[in-house]
Amino acid sequence: MKIIEQLNKLPINKGEYLVLPNIDTPFFIIPMTSKVAFQKAISFIKPKNKYGWLKKFVLGYLPFFLIRSFFSTIKIATKITNSTTRLILPWNQDFNNKFVIFNLGEKPSLIKIGFNYASKLIQNEHKVIAEYFNDNEIFPKIINYQLNEEYSILETAFYKGNHPEILPQKIIEFFNSKYNDCKSVSFKDHPYVKKMMNLIFMKLNNNKDTLGWLSEYISKFKDKQIFISLMHGDCTLTNIIVENNNIKLIDWEDCIEDGIPIDITYFNFRKQIDNNEKWEINGVVDFLVVLHYIYFQCRYNNMTRIDAIVLKHNFVCIER
């Protein structure tokens, strides 16, 4: 199985691991190398509902023989036997090529490992953080970076805190400072817009309804001036960590320097869409966040999500 083949290459202890919810959708991979390692790894999981909290509580006290009876477990055959406890999260867009590892040692850290195309994402994130870290405190601190023929590894400091409901002013100021130095081009000539449109129109060739209203807005805004700007690409609630005045924006792997100025607006767009609310398109940036969201879903073939996106009287929503 491909995921086990990749896991065998990761810097984790060999031995047995619990896979939740199952091997086909492995959102969490939890070490069963010892009871202490298991319970420590479980403590880092944040359930989304009361059932999840109950399941987490019960798992923490179940003996391993019962866990093996009711849940999926796998054997990982690395040669490592003395690494710190590590919880593994395969990337839910691609379970085989990108992994996030929580290093739960004395100084906790976050380790990202990318194979194949995901290796390029890790390399890109390292480049961006290395370039901007000294200039702005919203970037995570790099602890280690490795690049070899099989994969890339980026280890950053682990930050505890909460996810804010309002975009922090420090992040707003950072992006506004980047927009001040940008040149602009027309919507139809913007390199990132053209990149998005090419993939969207190729992927949605059978979805005439969505292509219809997208084409109307593209025609409406085709001559609008758009900045060519630094773009994080996924400036969302879960990628921002706040503890007192310490504010970090993480996950820079999709960042590009010739992007579009959407990050400030995208935070609010995702907050509304993810809460099953409507998003109103009043101007070109309001439309660009929708276009970027559809493009992201196309990149990872989330066609069911795209099919659920509808437009009604300038309001975009996802029908569930």
List the helices and strands and how they pair.
Blueprint lengths: L1 H6 L7 E8 L2 E7 L3 H9 L6 H12 L2 H7 L1 E5 L9 E6 L2 E10 L5 E7 L1 H16 L9 E6 L3 E7 L11 H11 L4 E3 L4 H13 L4 H14 L3 E3 L1 E3 L8 E4 L2 E4 L6 E4 L3 H12 L4 E2 L3 H16 L3 H5 L1 E4 L2 E4 L2
Antiparallel strand pairs: 1-2, 1-3, 4-5, 5-6, 6-8, 7-8, 9-10, 11-14, 12-13, 15-17, 16-17
Notes on the structure:
The structure is a single chain. The chain has 2 domains: 2-157, 2-Layer Sandwich (Phosphorylase Kinase, domain 1); 169-318, no CATH class. The longest helix has 16 residues, at 117-132. It starts with a helix and ends with a strand. Helix 2 (35-43) packs antiparallel against helix 3 and helix 9 (263-274) crosses helix 10 (284-299). The strands form 6 sheets. A 5-stranded antiparallel beta sheet has the order 4-5-6-8-7. Strands 2-1-3 form a 3-stranded antiparallel beta sheet. The mean pLDDT is 93. It is built from 11 helices and 17 strands. The relative contact order is 0.10. With 320 residues, it is α+β, with helices and mostly antiparallel strands.
What's the CATH H-level superfamily name of the largest domain? Phosphorylase Kinase, domain 1
- Per CATH, which architecture of the largest domain? 2-Layer Sandwich
How can the largest sheet be summarized? 5 strands, antiparallel
**Average of pLDDT:** 93
**CATH overall fold name of the largest domain:** Phosphorylase Kinase, domain 1
- What radius of gyration results from the CA coordinates? 21 Å
Q: Which strand order spans the largest sheet, edge to edge or round the barrel?
A: 4-5-6-8-7
> What is the H/E order?
HEEHHHEEEEHEEHEHHEEEEEHEHHEE
**Overall geometric form:** globular
Question: What's the count of strands?
Answer: 17
**CATH domain class of the largest domain:** Alpha Beta
Distance between the termini: 33 Å
Low-confidence stretches: none
Strand content: 25-35%
- Domain count: the total is 2
Helix content: 25-40%
Structure classification: alpha+beta
Number of helices: 11
